[in-house]
Protein backbone atom coordinates (compact mmCIF):
# COMPACT_ATOMS: atom_id res chain seq x y z
CA UNK A 1 0.00 0.00 0.00
CA UNK A 2 1.54 3.40 -0.97
CA UNK A 3 2.47 5.77 1.84
CA UNK A 4 0.04 8.60 2.54
CA UNK A 5 1.10 11.91 1.09
CA UNK A 6 1.25 14.82 3.56
CA UNK A 7 -1.62 17.25 3.16
CA UNK A 8 -0.61 20.77 2.13
CA UNK A 9 -2.90 23.79 2.54
CA UNK A 10 -2.18 27.32 1.29
CA UNK A 11 -4.23 30.09 2.88
CA UNK A 12 -4.72 33.76 1.98
CA UNK A 13 -5.18 36.56 4.51
CA UNK A 14 -4.79 40.32 3.92
CA UNK A 15 -2.39 40.39 0.98
CA UNK A 16 -1.94 40.92 -2.75
CA UNK A 17 -1.54 37.18 -3.61
CA UNK A 18 2.03 37.80 -4.81
CA UNK A 19 3.52 35.15 -2.53
CA UNK A 20 1.15 32.49 -3.85
CA UNK A 21 2.02 33.58 -7.39
CA UNK A 22 5.71 33.06 -6.58
CA UNK A 23 4.88 29.45 -5.77
CA UNK A 24 2.82 29.03 -8.94
CA UNK A 25 5.68 30.53 -10.96
CA UNK A 26 7.91 27.61 -9.91
CA UNK A 27 6.27 25.61 -12.74
CA UNK A 28 8.26 22.33 -13.06
CA UNK A 29 9.37 22.49 -9.43
CA UNK A 30 5.75 23.02 -8.42
CA UNK A 31 4.76 19.87 -10.31
CA UNK A 32 7.35 17.94 -8.30
CA UNK A 33 5.89 19.36 -5.08
CA UNK A 34 2.36 18.47 -6.18
CA UNK A 35 3.56 14.91 -6.74
CA UNK A 36 4.88 14.66 -3.16
CA UNK A 37 2.01 16.42 -1.36
CA UNK A 38 -1.74 16.12 -1.42
CA UNK A 39 -2.83 19.67 -2.27
CA UNK A 40 -5.72 19.97 0.15
CA UNK A 41 -6.35 23.73 -0.14
CA UNK A 42 -4.82 26.19 -2.62
CA UNK A 43 -7.58 28.40 -3.99
CA UNK A 44 -5.15 30.39 -6.14
CA UNK A 45 -4.56 27.18 -8.13
CA UNK A 46 -7.64 24.98 -7.73
CA UNK A 47 -11.19 25.06 -6.40
CA UNK A 48 -10.64 21.68 -4.73
CA UNK A 49 -10.84 21.94 -0.95
CA UNK A 50 -10.28 19.06 1.45
CA UNK A 51 -11.03 19.00 5.14
CA UNK A 52 -8.30 19.12 7.76
CA UNK A 53 -6.30 18.26 9.69
CA UNK A 54 -3.34 19.34 7.54
CA UNK A 55 0.30 18.33 7.74
CA UNK A 56 1.55 21.69 6.42
CA UNK A 57 -0.26 25.01 6.22
CA UNK A 58 1.26 27.96 4.37
CA UNK A 59 -0.11 31.37 5.37
CA UNK A 60 0.10 34.38 3.07
CA UNK A 61 -0.91 37.84 4.27
CA UNK A 62 -1.24 39.70 7.53
CA UNK A 63 -3.92 39.67 10.20
CA UNK A 64 -5.97 42.86 9.89
CA UNK A 65 -9.58 41.97 10.80
CA UNK A 66 -11.25 40.32 13.81
CA UNK A 67 -12.36 37.47 11.55
CA UNK A 68 -8.77 36.79 10.51
CA UNK A 69 -7.72 36.48 14.16
CA UNK A 70 -10.19 33.64 14.66
CA UNK A 71 -9.39 32.14 11.28
CA UNK A 72 -5.64 31.85 11.86
CA UNK A 73 -6.25 30.28 15.26
CA UNK A 74 -8.53 27.70 13.67
CA UNK A 75 -5.93 26.91 10.97
CA UNK A 76 -3.24 26.56 13.64
CA UNK A 77 -5.39 24.03 15.51
CA UNK A 78 -5.74 21.96 12.34
CA UNK A 79 -2.10 22.14 11.21
CA UNK A 80 0.94 20.19 12.36
CA UNK A 81 3.45 22.57 10.71
CA UNK A 82 2.75 26.24 10.03
CA UNK A 83 4.73 28.40 7.60
CA UNK A 84 4.36 32.19 7.48
CA UNK A 85 5.09 33.18 3.88
CA UNK A 86 6.22 36.64 2.82
CA UNK A 87 6.56 40.11 4.32
CA UNK A 88 2.87 40.42 5.24
CA UNK A 89 2.76 37.13 7.16
CA UNK A 90 6.14 37.65 8.85
CA UNK A 91 6.09 41.41 9.49
CA UNK A 92 2.65 42.87 8.75
CA UNK A 93 3.61 43.96 5.23
CA UNK A 94 3.12 47.29 3.52
CA UNK A 95 -0.32 47.55 5.09
CA UNK A 96 1.41 47.77 8.50
CA UNK A 97 2.02 51.41 7.62
CA UNK A 98 -1.46 51.91 9.08
CA UNK A 99 0.03 51.02 12.48
CA UNK A 100 1.60 54.47 12.63
CA UNK A 101 -1.70 56.32 12.14
CA UNK A 102 -5.32 56.18 13.25
CA UNK A 103 -6.95 53.73 10.83
CA UNK A 104 -10.36 55.37 11.31
CA UNK A 105 -9.06 58.41 9.48
CA UNK A 106 -8.32 56.28 6.40
CA UNK A 107 -11.74 54.63 6.55
CA UNK A 108 -13.53 57.96 6.77
CA UNK A 109 -11.53 59.25 3.80
CA UNK A 110 -11.98 56.24 1.50
CA UNK A 111 -15.40 54.73 2.24
CA UNK A 112 -18.83 56.32 1.97
CA UNK A 113 -20.06 54.08 4.81
CA UNK A 114 -17.02 53.37 7.03
CA UNK A 115 -19.34 51.94 9.69
CA UNK A 116 -19.70 48.87 7.41
CA UNK A 117 -15.96 48.14 7.57
CA UNK A 118 -14.88 45.68 10.27
CA UNK A 119 -11.14 46.08 10.71
CA UNK A 120 -8.43 46.12 13.35
CA UNK A 121 -6.38 49.26 14.09
CA UNK A 122 -3.21 47.39 13.15
CA UNK A 123 -1.87 44.94 10.57
CA UNK A 124 0.20 42.27 12.30
CA UNK A 125 2.21 39.13 11.44
CA UNK A 126 1.00 35.60 12.08
CA UNK A 127 3.43 35.07 14.96
CA UNK A 128 1.61 37.78 16.94
CA UNK A 129 -1.42 35.48 17.13
CA UNK A 130 -0.29 31.84 16.89
CA UNK A 131 2.93 29.80 17.17
CA UNK A 132 4.66 29.68 13.76
CA UNK A 133 7.07 26.88 12.88
CA UNK A 134 8.96 28.69 10.11
CA UNK A 135 9.00 32.21 8.65
CA UNK A 136 10.04 32.86 5.06
CA UNK A 137 10.53 36.53 4.28
CA UNK A 138 10.30 38.52 1.09
CA UNK A 139 7.92 40.73 -0.85
CA UNK A 140 7.47 38.38 -2.51
CA UNK A 141 9.71 35.51 -1.33
CA UNK A 142 11.82 33.67 -3.85
CA UNK A 143 10.08 30.73 -5.51
CA UNK A 144 13.24 28.67 -5.05
CA UNK A 145 13.17 29.40 -1.33
CA UNK A 146 9.55 28.30 -1.08
CA UNK A 147 10.44 25.02 -2.79
CA UNK A 148 13.43 24.67 -0.42
CA UNK A 149 11.24 25.07 2.65
CA UNK A 150 8.67 22.51 1.45
CA UNK A 151 11.43 20.14 0.35
CA UNK A 152 13.11 20.47 3.75
CA UNK A 153 9.85 19.52 5.43
CA UNK A 154 9.63 16.36 3.32
CA UNK A 155 13.27 15.53 4.13
CA UNK A 156 12.84 16.19 7.84
CA UNK A 157 15.57 18.85 7.98
CA UNK A 158 15.91 22.58 8.62
CA UNK A 159 15.45 24.79 5.53
CA UNK A 160 18.58 26.42 4.16
CA UNK A 161 17.88 30.13 3.64
CA UNK A 162 20.40 32.97 3.92
CA UNK A 163 20.72 35.06 7.05
CA UNK A 164 23.42 37.35 5.67
CA UNK A 165 22.87 40.73 4.05
CA UNK A 166 22.08 41.63 0.46
CA UNK A 167 25.62 43.03 0.19
CA UNK A 168 26.99 39.47 0.15
CA UNK A 169 24.90 38.70 -2.93
CA UNK A 170 26.27 41.82 -4.63
CA UNK A 171 29.83 40.70 -3.87
CA UNK A 172 29.21 37.18 -5.16
CA UNK A 173 27.62 38.49 -8.37
CA UNK A 174 30.34 41.10 -8.91
CA UNK A 175 27.86 43.96 -8.70
CA UNK A 176 29.47 47.34 -8.04
CA UNK A 177 28.10 48.92 -4.85
CA UNK A 178 25.47 51.47 -5.89
CA UNK A 179 25.84 53.37 -2.63
CA UNK A 180 29.65 53.67 -2.54
CA UNK A 181 30.09 54.11 -6.28
CA UNK A 182 26.90 55.97 -7.19
CA UNK A 183 25.76 57.68 -4.01
CA UNK A 184 22.39 55.89 -4.21
CA UNK A 185 20.70 55.13 -0.85
CA UNK A 186 20.54 51.35 -0.46
CA UNK A 187 19.04 49.17 2.26
CA UNK A 188 21.28 46.25 1.26
CA UNK A 189 23.65 46.41 4.28
CA UNK A 190 20.80 45.71 6.73
CA UNK A 191 18.52 43.58 4.50
CA UNK A 192 18.44 39.80 4.41
CA UNK A 193 19.54 38.29 1.10
CA UNK A 194 17.13 36.26 -0.98
CA UNK A 195 15.98 38.23 -4.03
CA UNK A 196 18.89 37.19 -6.24
CA UNK A 197 20.52 40.64 -6.28
CA UNK A 198 17.57 42.07 -8.20
CA UNK A 199 17.71 45.86 -7.72
CA UNK A 200 21.45 46.62 -7.24
CA UNK A 201 22.30 44.61 -10.36
CA UNK A 202 20.13 47.10 -12.27
CA UNK A 203 21.68 50.19 -10.73
CA UNK A 204 19.02 50.74 -8.06
CA UNK A 205 19.30 50.69 -4.29
CA UNK A 206 17.84 47.75 -2.36
CA UNK A 207 14.34 48.50 -1.02
CA UNK A 208 14.56 46.10 1.93
CA UNK A 209 11.92 43.66 0.64
CA UNK A 210 13.30 40.73 2.67
CA UNK A 211 13.41 42.56 5.99
CA UNK A 212 16.32 42.83 8.45
CA UNK A 213 19.25 40.45 8.25
CA UNK A 214 20.44 38.64 11.39
CA UNK A 215 22.45 41.50 12.93
CA UNK A 216 21.39 44.77 11.25
CA UNK A 217 23.16 47.97 12.24
CA UNK A 218 20.36 50.30 11.21
CA UNK A 219 21.68 53.43 13.00
CA UNK A 220 25.00 53.16 11.16
CA UNK A 221 23.28 52.84 7.79
CA UNK A 222 20.98 55.76 8.60
CA UNK A 223 24.05 57.87 9.33
CA UNK A 224 25.41 56.99 5.87
CA UNK A 225 22.11 58.02 4.33
CA UNK A 226 22.51 61.37 6.02
CA UNK A 227 25.96 61.78 4.47
CA UNK A 228 24.37 61.11 1.08
CA UNK A 229 22.06 64.06 1.58
CA UNK A 230 18.97 62.26 2.86
CA UNK A 231 16.99 64.19 5.48
CA UNK A 232 15.05 62.63 8.36
CA UNK A 233 11.89 62.27 6.29
CA UNK A 234 13.79 60.44 3.53
CA UNK A 235 15.41 58.10 6.05
CA UNK A 236 12.07 57.38 7.73
CA UNK A 237 10.60 56.35 4.37
CA UNK A 238 13.55 54.07 3.59
CA UNK A 239 13.04 52.09 6.80
CA UNK A 240 9.24 52.31 6.78
CA UNK A 241 8.57 50.40 3.58
CA UNK A 242 7.88 46.70 2.98
CA UNK A 243 8.71 45.58 6.53
CA UNK A 244 7.91 48.60 8.74
CA UNK A 245 6.86 46.52 11.76
CA UNK A 246 10.12 44.58 12.15
CA UNK A 247 11.86 45.66 15.35
CA UNK A 248 15.05 47.02 13.78
CA UNK A 249 13.35 48.92 10.97
CA UNK A 250 10.59 50.33 13.17
CA UNK A 251 13.03 51.54 15.82
CA UNK A 252 15.17 53.34 13.24
CA UNK A 253 12.19 54.90 11.47
CA UNK A 254 10.88 56.23 14.78
CA UNK A 255 14.24 57.87 15.48
CA UNK A 256 13.62 59.98 12.39
CA UNK A 257 9.87 60.42 12.78
Please provide a written account of the structure:
By secondary structure, the chain is an alpha/beta fold. It folds into 2 domains: 7-155, 3-Layer(aba) Sandwich (Rossmann fold), CATH 3.40.50; 166-255, no CATH class. Helices cover 37% and strands 11% of the residues. It has helices at 18-24, 28-36, 66-78, 86-91, 103-110, 143-155, 166-173, 178-182, 218-227, 232-239, 247-255, and strands spanning 7-12, 38-42, 54-60, 79-85, 134-136. Strands 2-1-3-4-5 form a 5-stranded parallel β-sheet. Helix 1 crosses helix 6, helix 2 (28-36) runs parallel beside helix 6 and helix 10 (232-239) packs antiparallel against helix 11 (247-255). The model has no long low-confidence stretch (mean pLDDT 93).
Number of helices: 11
The H-level CATH homologous superfamily of the largest domain, spelled out, is NADH:ubiquinone oxidoreductase-like, 20kDa subunit
Order of helices and strands: EHHEEHEHHEHHHHHH
Supply the helix-strand structural class: alpha/beta
Span of the ends, CA to CA = 63 Å
How many domains would you count in the coordinates?
2
Largest sheet composition: 5 strands, parallel
Strand content: 5-15%
Shape: globular
Q: Quick one: how many beta strands? A: 5
Report the uncertain regions. none
Mean of residue pLDDT values: 93
Oligomer kind: single chain
Amino acid sequence: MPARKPKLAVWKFTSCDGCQLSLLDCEDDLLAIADRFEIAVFLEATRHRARGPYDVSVLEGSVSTPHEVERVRDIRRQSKFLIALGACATAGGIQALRNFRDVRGFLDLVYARPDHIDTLPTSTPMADHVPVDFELRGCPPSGKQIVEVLGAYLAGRKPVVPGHSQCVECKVAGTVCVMVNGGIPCMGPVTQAGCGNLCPSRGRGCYGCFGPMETPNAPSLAAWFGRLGQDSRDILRLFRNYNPETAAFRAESERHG
